[in-house]
Amino acid sequence: MSSTGEETAEANAAADDSAKSTRDSEAPTDDPALAVRGLTKRYGDTVALDEVDLAVDDGEFVAVVGPSGCGKSTLLRVLTGLEVRFEGRAAVDGVDVRDGGSDAVGMVFQEPRLLAWADVRENVAVGLPSDVDRDDPAARERVDDLIETVGLDGFAESRPGELSGGMAQRVSLARGLAYEPEVLLLDEPFSALDQLTKYEQQDNLLDVWRERGATVALVTHDVEEAAYLADRVVVLGGQPGTVETVVDVEADRPRDRTDEALLAARREITDALGL
Ligand code: ADP
Asked: Ligand 1 centroid vs 155 CA: distance in angstroms?
């Protein structure tokens, strides 16, 4: 996350009031898996996000792209419940993120953030819900299944220092899945990887998405990645960040990276970004 600095007390109080009135007026509904409506987030005088709408259906893969500073990290911080002061609505499976909706979200960061002293199995187990006993044979089996899902069989007892960057990112993905989240959020998960490893990890993520029927929202600044992976690409722009456009990626799956439909989607995204 790239957020730094502090908010003013006034902005917080104003946002609190507005947030409360929105929350009180809306009980859980038949919202999509991820529902963001009229989301405005201020940091003091800075408006990071302005009236942003985002709906992600159950099992859908949505990418969010945009230039630096347009509020991508802020959006994720709201969805993960790290940012509770905002205007508008943000809900997971119909439950406001401030009322427990964010508990249904799993997060994968740009940096794998692994515990150096712990092996792969222990690092994945960190993602288990807090009420699960990690020494329980069922929990151990769940962790080992996840390690297999991300293609790391045979590495359960390796430590992060013994893994390549791509393997470490797979551990991070398995940890994000350990919670069995309704929605998996990924913040530029592949940006530190070399091109070939990145391609491999993108395909690995698609396999996991397909196998688990997960709902995925991926933040990236990589237009090619967004078009290749997503069903829909939400283009954020400006400061404050607003939704510039939403691009449907029509290419059939499994996708060929040179598919004309992907190239067309990429053109549409770059046009919207003014590139
Ligand atoms: P992105 O992830 O797209 O680069 P961010 O969400 O990090 O964008 O930031 C959006 C805007 O909000 C920027 O202008 C940034 O400076 C500002 N911002 C983000 N976090 C904070 C914070 N904690 N305090 C003050 N301003 C912030």
From this structure: 37
Among 6, 8, 46, which is best to mutate for testing ligand 1, by the most ligand atoms less than 8 A from CB?
A: 46
Please tell me the residue having the least CA distance from ligand 1 atom 6.
Answer: 71
Structure token pair of residue 214: 């997960």
Whole-number average pLDDT of the chain: 89
Residue with CA nearest ligand 1 atom 20: 3
In terms of Cα–Cα distance, which of 111, 138, 114, 110 is closest to 126? 114
Question: Cis bond leading into 240, ω under 30°?
Answer: yes
Model pLDDT, residue 29: 55
- Judged by DSSP in three states, 39 sits in strand
Convert the pLDDT of each residue in 177-206 to its tens digit.
998 898 999 999 999 889 998 999 999 999
| Predicted local distance difference test score (pLDDT) of residue 2 | 35
Ligand 1 and 191: CB distance under 6 A: no
Predicted model pTM = 0.86
For ligand 1, the distance from its centroid to the CA atom of residue 30, given in whole angstroms, is 31
Domains, the chain, with CATH or none: 9-273 (3.40.50.300)
pLDDT bin (cut points 50, 70, 90) of residue 130 is: confident
